[in-house]
Amino acid sequence: MTSKRLCYEPGHKPKCLVIVDDSAEWDRAVYYASRWAIRAGGGVVMLRIIEPEEQTQEWLGVADIMRAEAQEAAEAALDRAAGRANGIAAITPERVIREGAAMEQLLAVIDEDPDIAMLVLAASPGAEGPGPLVSLLAHALGTFPVPVTIISGALSDQSVDSLS
User: Following DSSP, what letter does each residue of 23-63 receive, concatenated?
Assistant: First the structure.
């Protein structure tokens, strides 16, 4: 399933994949990935996943409106994240919007871009746990196709600067 990584081959450059979701800590992952891109001479790919709602035949018109609104919200979230990355590292990240199950879409994006060298996620510092994506990935880490870096959502910009 997963293609060979080419990120350090001639004509390629390593990229860091970041998930831009509705969590409070997405900014920490974007910050770390942007700082990493500066040091590694690489790029950043920002992914927003729209998980589809269940729909019945009589609600298809409403579903189309909801899909359009989700697409608009995804574009706005990626605009904010790209602005943040540009402010941190003067880079223009690639933007990807996918619709479907989170893990399936995440793996598909990695498979389709052989320059993705790692996935960066931020974990919630709250008592409710690290967040749904970090928890979901915990079960797949042993077979995941790229290294995963998990940044604490409690780290300040200065702390991340010293680590990246």
Answer: STTHHHHHHHHHHHHHHHT-EEEEEEEEPPPP--GGGHHHH
pLDDT band at 15 (very low <50, low <70, confident <90, very high): very high
Tokens of 109: 């994006």
**Would residue 114 count as lying in a domain?**
yes
Number of domains in the chain: 1
User: Which residues does 59 contact at the CB level (< 8 Å), separation at least 6?
Assistant: none
Give 65's DSSP letter: H
The answer to the question of residue 26 being in a domain is: yes
**Residue at 134 is within a domain:** yes
Q: What is the DSSP letter of 124?
A: -
Confidence of residue 157 (pLDDT cuts 50, 70, 90): confident
| Domain annotation covers residue 8 | no
- pLDDT band of residue 59 (cuts 50, 70, 90) is low
CATH number of the domain enclosing 93: 3.40.50.620
The residue range of the domain holding 43 is: 17-52+60-162
